[in-house]
Amino acid sequence: MKIKIKRYHPKKEPKSIWMEYDILDGLTLLEALEYIKTNIDPTLTYSKGCRSGVCGSCAVVVNEKEELACEYKVREDDKIEALKILETIRDLVVDIDDSLDRLKKAKAYLSRPNILPLNKEDEKLNQKQSDCILCNSCYSSCPVFEANQNFLGPFALSRNYRYLIDKRENSKKEKIEAVLENGIWDCTLCGNCTEVCPQGIDPKSDILMLQSWATKFGYQNPNIANFGSFGLDF
Fold first, then answer.
1. Residues 221, 218: Cα–Cα separation, whole Å
2. Helix (H/G/I), strand (E/B), else coil: 173
3. N or C, which terminus of the chain has less Cβ within 10 Å?
């Protein structure tokens, strides 16, 4: 079986090159990468961790779609490359520091918590958003993030919503204000992030809910507010 991997080295010319490898049948992509590194090319660089779809560190793009290498079964002529948009460090390894910084900018944490007990229903309310494994697949698939690197992005916005609806949060308006600029109004609601999330999280729906909360606090979508009436009087 043959697959192609987009190799990248910042100090070589050309920096990027597609290379073809012969591998064994029936492997997961992570197993295939390990086979190549052990038996063919020890310079191949990639990320791995839990090997069971929990840590998110092995996310890559396969045939233009984000996948977890530890869960994806390799097929003939697959084309594998690093996550898109994020800065590639080497081969299939990308820099995720910026995306983690966006969590802070989005205030995706309890800002002013009330000391209240949580029951099972409370925990269930925001459990799905808490399942994020920080794989960055949503950023890789996001056309808004590609066009605007200041965009807070799907998982930061989804995590903001997780804490917004936490009954212990005592400053909900502050949460909304943190995601107004380069945030909820910039999203095109294309749904790419929802489609590629390995945990089944739905950032698109969470962003819609954030928009609804923003409206409750008196904010409106500036894109609609500035749309105008095309010279028509109503």
1. 10
2. helix
3. C
